[in-house]
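Lab notebook, bench 4. The sequencing result for the construct came back, and we need a structural model before the next group meeting so we can plan mutations. Quick request posted to the team channel:

Model the 3D structure of this chain.
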Amino acid sequence: MAVARFRALLSFQLLGLLSIEASAQAAGKTATYIRRADTVYVEAVASAGETVPDLLARYGLDGYTCNATQFFRINGMREDYRLSTNAVYRLPIQIVAYDGKTVRSTLGIDSWQVAIDIVEFNKRALAKGLRERSFLEDRQLWVPWHALHCRDEQLLAVAAGLAPAALSAPLKKEASNATGKRIFPIFGPEYQHVPLLSQRLKGQVFYIISGHGGPDSGAEGKRDGHTLCEDEYAYDVALRLTRLLLSHGAIAYMIVRDNNDGIRNAAFLPCDKDEVLWGEKAIPYDQKERLMDRSHLVNQLAEVHQKAGAPKQTVVEIHVDSRQKAKEIDVFFYYRPGCAQSRALALNMHRVMQLKYSRYRAYKAYKGTVSERSLLTLRETRLPLAVYIELGNIQNSWDQQRLIKPRNRQLLAEWLFQAF
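Done. Here's the predicted structure in token form:
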């Protein structure tokens, strides 16, 4: 695809928008910049036989009715989808002067996910030859209209695109097979049937995140010649908790998933790296990218459920800590700094643990703690009800018994569940 050479004279207006004077020197599928008193848009030349939907699709703007509406408005057109060959049309893509820091600071927005969407839009435009250089080089950020003005449409499209079947099942609160039984294969053949025992948590939504996974097995311990991987034991407890939530009417998502490791009753769980993110998305190597992917997904799904009227939504992240072998620790909790609801949830879980330990381990006091901590998931997820759980020290032989005994893993899940 031929790309026009850009001749841009940059000037910054008080509103921070970019005014550019440019001309296109190639025909067909060339984008240009145009000068406007208030807003700067990308322009494109219509090809022979191209319609409005075709032109919008070429620039990745299809699928959003608001983009079409804005296209007709900024071009002063009636809703006629015919285009004149070689005519120049404004596209619903604004051009904003990139501040050299972040997309969020450039646009004055808080949403990380919106910023990521805009960055990806610019990357695709560059890869397709629709723009000549990256916005990081020319400081000219393309902002598609739907990114800031059509979030309702975009969230539904993104969430549905992740895994349409998986999204529809939780929204309907159950999955079923031909016999009418509630079947959730993620729990494995032995536990996939999840009877509905009550409606105590009806309408509530839970996002259960087991720590690490994929290329990152997390902390490791050794016992009887076996390697104990954090992600495997956190995942097993997370599965058990999720199953309990579903059995009492909740909507529950396993954000990190292993499609061939259901609930397991073995002491030593083999370490593997085949976990994926909900929606069958691969888990990346970069730690921050891994954590941001999970936070983005929770935020997307939470907004969909909020619009559907969910009265209460909760994020639970489960890990296993690693310290010196001699350091014995009990289950402890982190909450989001400055968030009263997150703190209350952590304290409630802590109280349940105290009660249970006083019964099952009366000979020794429970020493689990509750504290605030600015962990990435707690910072980036937007739901007030969020808690981060550490199940013990994977290096300590006493704490290891909490992990390797299947009955203990089940009790952990049940006690966490009772806090809800």
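DSSP finds 14 helices and 17 strands in the chain.
Will bring this to the meeting.
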